[in-house]
Amino acid sequence: MTIASMQGVLKRYGSYVALDYINLDIHKGEIVGLLGPNGAGKTTLIQTLTGMLPFEKGEIALFGQSKNPFSHENKEKIGLVTQEVAVFEELTAKESLLFFAGVYGLKGNEKKKRVEEALDFVGLREQANKVPTKFSGGMKRRLNIACALTHRPKFLIMDEPTVGIDPQSRNHILESVKKLRDNGTTILYTTHYMEEVQEIASRVVIMDQGQVIQEGTVQQLIKTIQHEEKVSFDVAAPDQVPVKLLEGIIGVQKVTVTGSQITVISAAGAGNLDRVLSVVKEHSSVLAIQADKPNLEDVFLTLTGKQLRDKGE
Ligand SMILES: Nc1ncnc2c1ncn2[C@@H]1O[C@H](COP(=O)(O)OP(=O)(O)OP(=O)(O)O)[C@@H](O)[C@H]1O
Ligand SMILES: [Mg+2]
Q1: Residues whose CB is less than 8 angstroms from the CB of residue 122 and which lie 6 or more positions away in sequence, other chains included
Q2: Which atom of ligand 1 lies closest to the CA of 83?
Q3: Residue whose CA lies nearest to ligand 1 atom number 29
Q4: Looking at ligand 1, which residue's alpha carbon is closest to its atom 13?
Q5: Ligand 1, atom 12: closest residue by C-alpha
Q6: Nearest to 87 by CA among 130, 41, 38, 43
Q7: Cα(232)–Cα(230) distance, rounded to whole angstroms?
Q8: pLDDT by residue (tens digit) across 151-195?
Q9: Is the CB of 35 under 6 A from ligand 1?
Q10: Domains, the chain, ordered by start
């Protein structure tokens, strides 16, 4: 069963194309990892898919309905964790959750039960009666997630829920997402962190410049670039290494410089390592060399020519 689908969706901000005729299907029980760099259009996709933003062309269907996808009934089946954490600073965690449960029409004992459930779920029971001004970033995020859960959504959308939080909260969130999936919730999970996608996603959708540029399971995506070899050098003087010269070596497909690391991707069996190493060494001393198996980050780099994360993030 298809929970959500976008067919040929065009969304522009003025003349800027933010969603470039997007096609996307999300099936029941999936965790779809939506991966893309800053500005790829992930948040725009989520806001369009949930009816928060209008779109110009194409079709959106939610829970099999394309005529009136954003009906009240459909919206009640969705939980949305927005990219910006928004919590009521003056309400305790529990009061916030009671408020949201009320918005979703829950009442009496059922409301109380769902609030306790959500507090347990995100591991905030001990903080239930505290106001979020005393919370860490990770705790605020967990409260934010709990607010999207009291109504037990069938479709949960999370927009970069683990940015800037402590590892403990991060693990808690990832475990919670897997638990929700096991209980039958369908999840769209947006992130810059390929490790997270590798851990939880049943399918990965890679987005760049408003387009879906590749999709598949992690294994399928890695296979698409397994005809490649990757070697990275930590160098003392990255500015001195002539990228153009490296790119000219037979078999070399791509050269990237990130901080002090030079990464050279070559066709499999290119047999050019001697030559690559000697060019690098001519211009800078080499502190370390690593040859890695490709991962999702490399798939992304190969497809877009960009790192997933901005430097220093
Ligand atoms: N309200 C707006 N008006 C004009 N341009 C916008 C608006 N919102 C987003 N954009 C532009 O649309 C593009 C997609 O933005 P969006 O926020 O969807 O990207 P994103 O993939 O969520 O990025 P990030 O990872 O930084 O959250 C960006 O180039 C952004 O500058
Ligand atoms: Mg965003």
Answers
A1: 142, 143, 145, 146, 149, 172, 173, 176
A2: 27
A3: 39
A4: 39
A5: 18
A6: 130
A7: 7
A8: 999 999 999 998 878 888 888 889 989 999 999 999 999 988 888
A9: no
A10: 2-222 (3.40.50.300), 227-293 (3.30.70.100)
